[in-house]
């Protein structure tokens, strides 16, 4: 067999990979981003840097912040607060939603508080949180927990309510107890709703962390964005916004991969 005949299958295999559906999707995404950056650059040529800094200016500022470590400090602070508050909200919201969805008396007791507080935005509690808990890390984590817990609880309740009654009847006819019903029927059926609630809550946690850091933090992406106004550094604002977007994408992607691995058999 000649070298040419050996190379032919390799080239055809590479071509299939390059022209596969995933490659096309990635290419479309990259082209979309490139077009967006070009439009951003063209718009920056017609305005002042204070109003709209160019992509090159933002890239240079990003490299400066990476070099002095300030960007990593800000990202690390925000990421820790989001992770801690969101995880606490999920850990409480899931079992609370299961209990409220399964036991009517629990729902009657807790529902008035859920329905009242879920309409009050976390930013309304920033001042009280600082007074009660001080300006430290715990305040920001509590606010993110507050953001998360109601969303996860309500989505979990919806998942429990969506369980097919025939499945419950079948489990009972086979002698299932309340606990086994919860673990073998209700929980697996509600998993997609829990995951959806956790993802929505994660997005809202990014909104909350910026608000909390603006009011009571010296570090973090929100604090960095707020500090930029004192120095007229719009480029800092853009660096913070882009960092938040990338961090949010990475968080969501990691969560999706984890849930697909751990709860694959429960997902639709």
Automatic annotation (TrEMBL):
<feature type="transmembrane region" description="Helical">
    <location>
        <begin position="26"/>
        <end position="43"/>
    </location>
</feature>
<dbReference type="GO" id="GO:0042918">
    <property type="term" value="P:alkanesulfonate transmembrane transport"/>
</dbReference>
<dbReference type="Pfam" id="PF00528">
    <property type="entry name" value="BPD_transp_1"/>
</dbReference>
<feature type="domain" description="ABC transmembrane type-1">
    <location>
        <begin position="75"/>
        <end position="259"/>
    </location>
</feature>
<dbReference type="InterPro" id="IPR000515">
    <property type="entry name" value="MetI-like"/>
</dbReference>
<protein>
    <submittedName>
        <fullName>NitT/TauT family transport system permease protein</fullName>
    </submittedName>
</protein>
<feature type="transmembrane region" description="Helical">
    <location>
        <begin position="71"/>
        <end position="96"/>
    </location>
</feature>
<feature type="transmembrane region" description="Helical">
    <location>
        <begin position="141"/>
        <end position="163"/>
    </location>
</feature>
<feature type="transmembrane region" description="Helical">
    <location>
        <begin position="184"/>
        <end position="202"/>
    </location>
</feature>
<comment type="similarity">
    <text>Belongs to the binding-protein-dependent transport system permease family.</text>
</comment>
<keyword id="KW-0812">Transmembrane</keyword>
<keyword id="KW-0472">Membrane</keyword>
<dbReference type="GO" id="GO:0005886">
    <property type="term" value="C:plasma membrane"/>
</dbReference>
<feature type="transmembrane region" description="Helical">
    <location>
        <begin position="116"/>
        <end position="135"/>
    </location>
</feature>
<feature type="transmembrane region" description="Helical">
    <location>
        <begin position="236"/>
        <end position="255"/>
    </location>
</feature>
<comment type="function">
    <text>Probably part of an ABC transporter complex. Probably responsible for the translocation of the substrate across the membrane.</text>
</comment>
<dbReference type="InterPro" id="IPR035906">
    <property type="entry name" value="MetI-like_sf"/>
</dbReference>
<keyword id="KW-1003">Cell membrane</keyword>
<keyword id="KW-1133">Transmembrane helix</keyword>
<keyword id="KW-0813">Transport</keyword>
């Amino acid at each position: 067999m000649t070298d040419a005949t050996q190379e032919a299958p390799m080239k055809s295999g590479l071509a299939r990979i390059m022209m596969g559906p995933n490659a096309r999707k990635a290419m479309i995404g990259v082209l979309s981003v490139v077009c967006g950056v070009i439009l951003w650059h063209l718009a920056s040529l017609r305005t002042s840097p204070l109003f709209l800094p160019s992509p090159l200016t933002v890239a240079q500022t990003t490299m400066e912040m990476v070099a002095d470590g300030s960007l990593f400090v800000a990202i690390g602070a925000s990421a820790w607060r989001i992770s801690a508050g969101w995880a606490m909200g999920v850990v409480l919201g899931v079992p609370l939603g299961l209990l409220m969805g399964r036991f009517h008396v629990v729902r009657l007791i807790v529902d008035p508080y859920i329905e009242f507080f879920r309409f009050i935005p976390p930013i309304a509690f920033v001042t009280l949180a600082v007074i009660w808990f001080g300006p430290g890390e715990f305040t920001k984590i509590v606010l993110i927990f507050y953001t998360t817990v109601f969303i996860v609880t309500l989505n979990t309740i919806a998942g429990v309510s969506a369980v097919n009654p025939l499945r419950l009847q079948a489990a009972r006819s086979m002698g299932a107890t309340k606990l086994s019903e919860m673990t073998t029927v209700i929980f697996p059926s509600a998993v997609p709703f829990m995951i959806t609630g956790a993802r929505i809550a994660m997005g809202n946690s990014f909104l909350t962390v910026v608000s909390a850091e603006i009011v009571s933090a010296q570090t973090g992406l929100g604090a960095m964005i707020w500090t930029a106004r004192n120095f007229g550094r719009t480029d800092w604002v853009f660096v913070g916004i882009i960092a938040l977007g990338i961090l949010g994408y990475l968080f969501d992607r990691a969560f999706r991969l984890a849930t697909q691995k751990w709860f694959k058999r429960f997902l639709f």
